[in-house]
Design brief:
By secondary structure, this protein is mainly alpha-helical. It has one domain: Helix Hairpins. 75% of the residues lie in helices and 0% in strands. Helix 1 runs antiparallel to helix 2 and helix 2 runs antiparallel to helix 3. The longest helix has 31 residues.
């Protein structure tokens, strides 16, 4: 049995759609960050799959995915630091309550 691209692209699409849904519907910054990371992981899966099937002997998609994972880790660390500082000042991490910080 030959595994085609569709077996990889459908779970990546489901992951991406779940991430978009979670990002739009959640008001907690931590949940929004998790949804954003879910979308980034789905994109990384697509990079690897398209590289594997379109250019089988080359590794550019895999190296690009490694860089994307490193950038996502740095983005997560910075986001968590911002969320911790927001929590210290507002005592809440809901996006709707952050209008108090404008004053």
């Amino acid at each position: 049995m030959d595994i085609t691209m569709i077996y990889y692209l459908v779970p990546a699409l489901i992951m991406f759609c779940c991430g978009v849904y979670g990002f739009i519907t959640r008001r907690n910054m931590i949940a929004m960050l998790i949804s954003l990371e879910l979308m980034l992981n789905a994109v990384d899966i697509n990079f690897v799959v398209f590289n594997r099937y379109l250019f089988p002997g080359q590794m550019e998609g895999m190296f690009f995915t490694l860089f994307a994972i490193a950038i996502a880790a740095a983005e997560t660390a910075i986001s968590i630091a911002i969320i911790i500082n927001v929590y210290r000042s507002v005592k809440n991490v809901k996006v709707d309550d952050l209008t108090e910080m404008k004053n």
